[in-house]
Hints:
- By secondary structure, the protein is α+β, with helices and mostly antiparallel strands.
- The chain folds into two domains: about 20-190, no CATH class; about 195-320, no CATH class.
- About 40% of the residues lie in helices and about 20% in strands.
- It has ten helices and eight strands.
- The strands form two sheets. It has a four-stranded antiparallel β-sheet.
- Strand 5 and strand 6 (about 150-160) form a beta hairpin.
- The radius of gyration is 27 Å and the shape is elongated.
Amino acid sequence: MNQTTLPIAGLWAIALTVLAASPYAARGLEPKLATMPWDEANISTLGAFDRDAIQKFVNSPEANGVPPGEGPLSVVSPVNVDQFAWADFAGKGQFVLVVVWDTGHGGQALSVFRRSTSGRVDKQDVDLENLGSEGPLKDAIRDLNGDGKKELLFYCGFGVGRSMADTPSTQWPAVYRFHDGKLVEASHEFPSFYEKEFLPELAEKISRLQKKLASEAEALSSGEAKMKQYHLNPSEILSPQQIIAVTDEEQLAILESLRDHIIVAVLGRTLTAEQVNQARQWLNSSDYQILDDVEGTFEEMGSGHEIEALEAQQAKQRLAQP
């Protein structure tokens, strides 16, 4: 079979025709994210962009407040995109771009890009203090109350684990919603989510850990006695079994403190008498980390619990003394 080969001049003619038909092709993004509407009509096209294309856009002048053609790429500090998702937070068919990116120091940051009706791209950097473990971003974008608007569940770290240095040892989901074109923390507006989803799961974790600690009673008792006597790093004085038991006890204190935090600080409610008594029992601990957790709990309880917060603080000071 004979094959027809186009001359090089013919190939260039075809290429120029394609570029003429697509004005954004020569600029690297087709169609260009900074100029196309981010609406329901274009969501299929928006969703087709891969991570590399999103990263190019995030690092472009247009995405960082520099009008097209008025600033070199060098004005932007390049970031590495970890995850991204499109979300209709306002429920009006207008989408924003949510990006999780690597800070380069073992941490992550989150930015939200919104295209205004004038065509300008606005950027919001969301504070990620105490970032918890990373999960799929698409699973964190949900309509929690059925009003047609999406919310963002941002997992925050809570507590410090002995074997994890300064890394949060558990996470809780803070709820962010859109307000005046910005994502704002609004966890207290979604009590049903915490009551029906998060708190029951947390109660189950607490119950399982309580049962496990019951089987570790002997190792825990001997480990606590050594810690009280020597005030040293437990890894230097405890057996492996004792370390496991002590770590489990710390984790239980953290989980109970997290439960109390959700009830008091997020939902604005008071603890039951049983929950307050559970917190008071931790005041007898010889574990600095546990005392630190319970101090925070009593501080959040506020009026009427200043004495317990002070007791926890004083106990921590005694443990810190050589």
